[in-house]
């Protein structure tokens, strides 16, 4: 998956990171915090900070310790909360670290590692809450929109609706 962009939920004003597959057939929206969105946005925009931000520090520490981020994975969806794992290759062997998806995505962008989404997460997000197209258009609370409806919603959005793009 790739970061398709960042946008805001019009009802709650919460940031959303949208992950897309390479064929643009699967879209996975994940609601994240403002600070996490800022961390992702600064990397997407190529903004260099005077001092290392948290995810830059994490990247630097991993490198200094001789480890490498092999991939990040959005690994689970439980009770409307996404879970992620950071897969590291260390001198002592592989390690897997629990993470919030936003932190894993931000780190993946900084080290150019691939982002994977577990099939069970895609299946769970698809069946989470089904909303028909008319109610999705009438209800601005996008947190209730199923993964299948996201393609329709994203197709109707103009490029200006996304603050940050890749």
Description:
It is a single chain. This protein is α+β, with helices and mostly antiparallel strands. The protein has one domain (2-165): Bifunctional nuclease domain (Roll). The protein is 35% helix and 31% strand. A four-stranded antiparallel beta sheet has the order 3-2-1-8. It has a four-stranded mixed beta sheet with strand order 6-5-4-7. α1 (34-44) runs parallel beside α3 (101-111) and α2 (54-64) packs across α3 (101-111). The longest helix is centred in the N-terminal third of the chain and has 11 residues, at 34-44. Residues 129-143 have low confidence and may be disordered.
Question: What descriptive keywords fit this protein?
Answer:
alpha+beta, Bifunctional nuclease domain, 8 strands, 166 residues, four-stranded antiparallel beta sheet, 6 helices
Brief overview:
By secondary structure, this protein is of the alpha+beta class.
What's the CATH topology label?
Bifunctional nuclease domain
The helix count comes to 6
Shape: globular
Strand content bin: 25-35%
Cα radius of gyration in angstroms: 16 Å
In the CATH hierarchy, what is the class?
A: Alpha Beta
Q: How do the strands and helices of this protein lay out in sequence?
A:
Elements: E1 2-8, E2 15-20, E3 27-31, H1 34-44, H2 54-64, E4 68-78, E5 81-90, E6 93-99, H3 101-111, E7 115-117, H4 119-127, H5 133-138, H6 147-156, E8 164-165
Parallel strand pairs: 4-7
Antiparallel strand pairs: 1-2, 1-8, 2-3, 4-5, 5-6
């Amino acid at each position: 998956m790739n970061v398709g962009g960042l946008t805001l939920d019009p009802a709650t004003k919460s940031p959303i990171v949208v992950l897309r597959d390479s064929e643009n057939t699967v879209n996975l929206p994940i609601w994240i915090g403002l600070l996490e969105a800022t961390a992702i946005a600064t990397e997407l925009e190529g903004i260099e900070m005077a001092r290392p931000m948290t995810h830059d520090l994490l990247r630097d520490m991993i490198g200094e310790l001789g480890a490498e981020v092999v991939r990040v994975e959005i690994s689970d969806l439980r009770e409307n909360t996404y879970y992620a794992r950071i897969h590291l290759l260390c001198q002592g062997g592989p390690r897997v670290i629990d993470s919030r998806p936003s932190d894993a995505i931000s780190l993946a962008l900084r080290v150019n590692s691939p982002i994977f989404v577990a099939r069970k997460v895609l299946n769970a997000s698809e069946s989470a809450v089904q909303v028909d197209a008319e109610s999705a258009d009438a209800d601005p609370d996008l947190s209730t929109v199923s993964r299948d409806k996201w393609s329709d919603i994203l197709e109707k959005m103009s490029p200006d609706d996304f603050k940050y793009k890749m």
